[in-house]
Design brief:
Blueprint lengths: L1 H14 L2 H4 L5 E9 L5 E10 L10 E6 L4 E7 L2 E8 L7 E4 L24 E5 L9 H6 L5 H9 L5 E6 L12 E7 L1
Parallel strand pairs: 7-8
Antiparallel strand pairs: 1-2, 1-9, 3-4, 4-5, 5-6, 8-9
Amino acid sequence: MRFLFFFILVFVISSCKHETLAPKGLKKVLLVQIDYNTFLFEGGKEFSYFENDNSKIELPIQSDFFPGTTNRLTMLYLTDTIFEGIQSQTIGEGKRLYPTEIDPPIHYFRNKNPLDKPDTSHFQTLFYDLGTEVIPYDSIWNSISLLTIVSEYQNQNNTANIGLFLFRPTASSATKEDWKWYLVFKN
């Protein structure tokens, strides 16, 4: 009986194709979060669902901003949500809804030397509602320039744009404590 069980187990495991377990051709997207005031890297999330992504330079991201009692910002990569948050005039009521959790900075390895910042034209502004206020590209980049995963994404696909957007859970500019920068990388 043990022999039969063992034989069946070995057969089932060996019949599973590696391609089925780890399909090839899936594109990955990395979303990183950076504090607006301190420019500290606060974590990130990697997504790998994008089979039909044929984009080369422009990221196929659509930003939808729905105004209302509470404003809603949604970022769609092709048809999949990679970010969603609500914005409120009241401090503490706005928040990131998706991803519900991001991986903390301790989960990310760091290189010894920083990665050079790409030219500003390489950044694709996905959503920015502060009008003509200058985007501090250098400070934003410096916060993630040592991350190994950012180097890997840039080495795998240095032609794709880097998505950038600002999310302000509190719409009022009286407080900027909960504002976050987000960068989106594609492999």
